[in-house]
From TrEMBL:
<feature type="domain" description="Formamidopyrimidine-DNA glycosylase catalytic">
    <location>
        <begin position="2"/>
        <end position="100"/>
    </location>
</feature>
<keyword id="KW-0472">Membrane</keyword>
<dbReference type="InterPro" id="IPR015886">
    <property type="entry name" value="H2TH_FPG"/>
</dbReference>
<keyword id="KW-0234">DNA repair</keyword>
<keyword id="KW-0326">Glycosidase</keyword>
<dbReference type="Pfam" id="PF06831">
    <property type="entry name" value="H2TH"/>
</dbReference>
<dbReference type="InterPro" id="IPR010979">
    <property type="entry name" value="Ribosomal_uS13-like_H2TH"/>
</dbReference>
<dbReference type="GO" id="GO:0008534">
    <property type="term" value="F:oxidized purine nucleobase lesion DNA N-glycosylase activity"/>
</dbReference>
<dbReference type="GO" id="GO:0140078">
    <property type="term" value="F:class I DNA-(apurinic or apyrimidinic site) endonuclease activity"/>
</dbReference>
<keyword id="KW-0511">Multifunctional enzyme</keyword>
<keyword id="KW-1133">Transmembrane helix</keyword>
<keyword id="KW-0812">Transmembrane</keyword>
<protein>
    <recommendedName>
        <fullName>Formamidopyrimidine-DNA glycosylase</fullName>
        <ecNumber>3.2.2.23</ecNumber>
        <ecNumber>4.2.99.18</ecNumber>
    </recommendedName>
</protein>
<feature type="transmembrane region" description="Helical">
    <location>
        <begin position="60"/>
        <end position="82"/>
    </location>
</feature>
<dbReference type="InterPro" id="IPR012319">
    <property type="entry name" value="FPG_cat"/>
</dbReference>
<dbReference type="InterPro" id="IPR020629">
    <property type="entry name" value="FPG_Glyclase"/>
</dbReference>
<dbReference type="InterPro" id="IPR035937">
    <property type="entry name" value="FPG_N"/>
</dbReference>
Amino acid sequence: MPELPEMETYRQQLAPLIQGVPITGVEVTRPKSLNVEPEQFAQLLRGNRILQINRRAKHLLFILATGELLVLHLMLGGWMYVGSDEDKPDRTFQVTIHFGAKSLYFIGLRLGYLHVHLPEEAEAIFKKLGPEPLQADFTFERFRQTLQGKRGNLKVTLVDQSVISGIGNCYSDEICFYAQLLPTRKINDLSEEELQRLYQSMRTVLLEAIRYGGYMESPLYAGDRLTGGFDSRCRVYDREGEPCVRCGHPLVFEEVSSRKCFYCANCQA
């Protein structure tokens, strides 16, 4: 599932490709991906423009010239592609937005969605989300206050979108590895020094993942050399049995509270 770095990579790369370009057409093959009727969706978008693309947690927000927002959540298996009819992937598209000769294809939206909202509606939806981990005002002190009173383990707490937004299975494991903490550790058992390590690791891992384009390898457009570049840099995620890059011991996979979890049992404590 795309997490904060993947969606931030999409945001940064999509902006120069489609921002401000007139929308010339819309196709919808899966109406359930929308929260309005396809005809209404198409009528809103044709002739409109996307003035700005923002990100909130694992969502992208396409701000239309008419004031509405398109709120995208790719969920499990969703991705996007920008290109022409000639170079588009050989896949089924649930929604396609045309910008003249190029189009934005939404792929794998079986669980994901692209919803139309007014700004105040979107604000109400996002109120339930926790703070953004890379925001300048999300200091260590605020991080510590956010975790205060939490009794769950690290894995479950880091992926809880109401606690801190944008982190999922992949980056929770990478953050714990970088901090040399077991994902099964209880939040309320962490020392001040361990909390400091966790905070710094969270920022370091997420910023590195954004710099290398996240871990999802499907390119956004023909010739895209950024998207998915972090996959080869993952230290533990999806690396069961491989030697730990820090100590050489085989990495472990187990389910923690029904979630996939990868770690080193030797150098994470």
